[in-house]
Amino acid sequence: MRTWVVLLFSISISLFAQAETPKEAPVPALTLKEKLKTLTSQSRHVQSDNLIFDLPVTYNKKVSKWIAYFQGPRSNKWFREWLQRSYKYMPFIQAELKKAGLPMDLAYMVMIESGFAPNAISHASAVGPWQFIEATGTRYGLNKTWWLDERRDLKKSTLAAIRYLKDLHAEFGSWYLVAASYNMGENGLRRQIKKYGTKDYWSLIKLDALPAETQEYVPKILAAMLIAKAPNLYGFRDLEKMDPLDYDVVLVPGGTDLSPLADHLGVTRKSLKDLNAELYLGYIPRQVDKHFIRVPKGAGQIVSSFIHQLNRKVALE
């Protein structure tokens, strides 16, 4: 089993301002790890076991800028919503990453890519939680038809992203470069590495070798990760913790419409459609034989009974 690299904020650059050392008694500077341990021990709301990383952590001006931005008045509201959604989606994504032997903190890419929104669409027509463009999605096994788009499906897109991330890491050997190539495309990054002769992400930034968006991409991920690990320290208190994603899977026939099914189950139509975001029309076409759908945990038998009753009604007509 893969040995996880656990980094408990053991990085050399300080996140917090440090008081001047008294002139009469020089005292060794506290490490960042020691500072955060002290801060978390003073707060009843922060759990120190959250301050664990399995990605390299860098703190610099770019990361600091994005932390301040996420805390700021223009973005505080929607970043708070992202943090609250993370309680629902992070456990699922991280479990799949762990199962695949990848760093679980790669899940923060989804926070930056889409804010965990299954129907997110970018200006470049990237779709879904992991923001796959159609060509890359197809390359990694995500189907798209006139009624189905598996890029929107959290599990299918996460499994595709895992295969993609593994391929990128096999080539570039650095998780920062994996993220950069995910953002800008591996061909573009490959050319810049060859041109400048370095595989160091921060060096490529200094050389202005990466697109502006890619230069900010890793700092955004690191900023989101730092805040999410200890939200109280950054002013995000009293977060509403959504229940972790859980569901049953049911095989249903073509012609199944999610809206009446949601009404029968007593859940909102939006919640059931979000759970089955790959069905972006909200139903399975009649010409499709069968298809698996996700329903709230414990509702599998109710759905099967409902579908059976509908089929009998149709047969009698």
SSE layout and pairings?
Blueprint: H1 32-41, H2 61-71, H3 76-99, H4 108-114, H5 134-139, H6 154-172, H7 175-184, H8 186-196, H9 201-206, H10 212-229, E1 247-253, H11 258-265, H12 269-275, E2 290-296, H13 300-316
Antiparallel strand pairs: 1-2
Number of domains: 2
Trace the largest sheet across and list its strands.
1-2
What's the CATH first level of the largest domain?
Mainly Alpha
Which structural class do you get from the secondary structure elements? mainly alpha
Overall 3D form: globular
Mean of all residue-level pLDDT scores: 87
CATH topology of the largest domain: Lysozyme
Classify the helix fraction into a percent range: 40-55%
Poorly predicted ranges (pLDDT <50, ≥5 residues)?
1-27, 39-49
Query: Which sequence of SSEs, written as H and E, runs from N to C?
Result: HHHHHHHHHHEHHEH
Distance between the termini: 57 Å
CATH architecture verdict of the largest domain: Orthogonal Bundle
**How large is the count of helical segments?**
13
Q: What proportion strand?
A: under 5%
What Rg do the Cα atoms give? Answer: 23 Å
**How many strands, which pairing sense, and closed or not: the largest β-sheet?**
2 strands, antiparallel
Q: Any overview of this molecule?
A:
By secondary structure, this protein is mainly alpha-helical. The protein folds into two domains: 59-234, Lysozyme (Orthogonal Bundle); 247-316, no CATH class. Helix content is 49%, strand content 4%. The chain is built from 13 helices and two strands. The protein has helices spanning 32-41, 61-71, 76-99, 108-114, 134-139, 154-172, 175-184, 186-196, 201-206, 212-229, 258-265, 269-275, 300-316; strands spanning 247-253, 290-296. A two-stranded antiparallel sheet has the order 1-2. Helix 11 crosses helix 12 (269-275).
